[in-house]
Amino acid sequence: MKILVTGGAGFLGSHLIDRLMEQGHEVLCLDNYFTGTKQNIDGWIGHHRFELIRHDVTEPIRLECDRIYHLACPASPVHYQYNPVKTIKTNVMGTLNMLGLAKRVKARFLLASTSEVYGDPDVHPQPEEYRGNVNTIGIRSCYDEGKRVAETLAFDYHRQNGVDIRVMRIFNTYGPRMLENDGRVVSNFIAQALKGIPLTVYGDGSQTRSFCYVSDLIEGMMRLMENDEHLGPVNIGNPGEYTILQLAETIQKTIDPDAEIVFEPLPQDDPKQRQPDITRAKNWLDWEPTVDLKNGLEKTIADFRARVQV
Ligand SMILES: NC(=O)c1ccc[n+]([C@@H]2O[C@H](COP(=O)([O-])OP(=O)(O)OC[C@H]3O[C@@H](n4cnc5c(N)ncnc54)[C@H](O)[C@@H]3O)[C@@H](O)[C@H]2O)c1
Q: Cβ distance 56 to 32 under 8 Å?
């Protein structure tokens, strides 16, 4: 198949492209390089089945394809808050443009949505039926509400125009190629520990997160895309729940047991708990995560050691 991956030069997009290329597909990688890099897809540049397109999804584009994986959007708070209006444009206009393309060329369309649509949840763990607790005017809203609108657009294009859509809600994912400076907790702690600077925990570290290793996530994403029965939304994440302090201590032990942990004030609207209910993914896609935190962290730390200047 001819497969378009928007945001293909980013963390998740580049791992998805590796899998699609290995399966023998023709891959179009579309990216504006805001948070993605050519290094992430270096191995495929020049391959006859691979094409790289520098393009911003907020502008329409015409091309032919059978599948659209729509991942283009900065995912970490430091990047999506850098230009919040642009983040909303990317989520709303970018998704509109890609759904318009899917409609025109009759491609199946998958939206990379997020657990952030649940906001600061008052239901735990979060099943897909939970409608969320999102602040419409906070500093995270450009991303959270942007993704909520993107989901709405996908379902409206389906109902109104018959576009074949899939919606996945991605929970915290980590692994090789995460940006060292993107402010996400796993990359922060690893980079800090490798550089010998204190690990920064926001709040008292009792807030929880679940962490999904990237290969598991991509497997779930591809299963949803090729599932002929269900549109979603489907949560894809690892239900193993850890406090941020536990994560810091695990990374501290693995890299440098003498590393210091320091505490700083919690940012606005930081969710207290986040854990996916993956019953749907199990039933619909026969999917569940296979890589545990210890193994996933070892692979991620090895990648960071090779890249991060200490
Ligand atoms: N990684 C996670 O834990 C996570 C969690 C929930 C949702 N997601 C979603 O998955 C997708 C991929 O996330 P990621 O972790 O790979 O992030 P990332 O920042 O590494 O990748 C996003 C990619 O999109 C590109 N991009 C951003 N704005 C664009 C625009 N206007 N036009 C074209 N390209 C643009 C960036 O350059 C980058 O290559 C995002 O939509 C994100 O919201 C990720």
A: yes
Average pLDDT over the chain, rounded to an integer: 94
Q: Which of 5, 30, 35 to mutate to test the pocket of ligand 1 (most atoms within 8 A of CB)?
A: 35
Q: Whose Cα sits closest to atom 11 in ligand 1?
A: 71
Residue whose CA lies nearest to ligand 1 atom number 35: 72
User: Using one digit for the tens of pLDDT, what is the confidence trace for 205-232?
Assistant: 998 889 999 999 999 999 999 999 999 9
Ligand 1, pocket residues at CB < 6 Å = 7, 9-13, 31-36, 56-58, 71-75, 90, 94, 112, 114, 170, 172-173
Atom number in ligand 1 closest to CA 76: 19
Which among 126, 117, 65, 60 has a CA at the least distance from the CA of 94?
60
Query: Domain-by-domain residue ranges, the chain?
Result: 2-170+213-236, 174-209+240-275+290-307
Q: Would residue 143 show up in a list of annotated catalytic residues for this protein?
A: yes
| pLDDT, tens digit (0-9, with 9 covering 90-100), for 9-42 | 999 999 999 999 999 999 999 999 999 999 999 9
| Record: fold of 174-209+240-275+290-307 | UDP-galactose 4-epimerase; domain 1 (3.90.25)
CA-to-CA distance for 146 and 281, rounded, in angstroms?
Answer: 24
Distances (CA, A) of 243 to 49, 210, 240: 43, 9, 10
CATH class for the domain made up of 2-170+213-236: alpha beta
Is the CB of residue 90 less than 8 Å from the CB of residue 34? no
The phi and psi torsions of 26 (rounded to 5 degrees) equal: -90, 125
Considering 50-59, 77-86, 113-122, the range whose residues carry the highest mean pLDDT is 50-59
Distance CA(49)–CA(296), nearest Å, equals 30
* pTM: predicted TM-score of the whole model, two decimal places: 0.95
Distance 290 CA to ligand 1 centre (A): 23
- Tell how far the Cα of 259 is from the centroid of ligand 1, in angstroms: 31
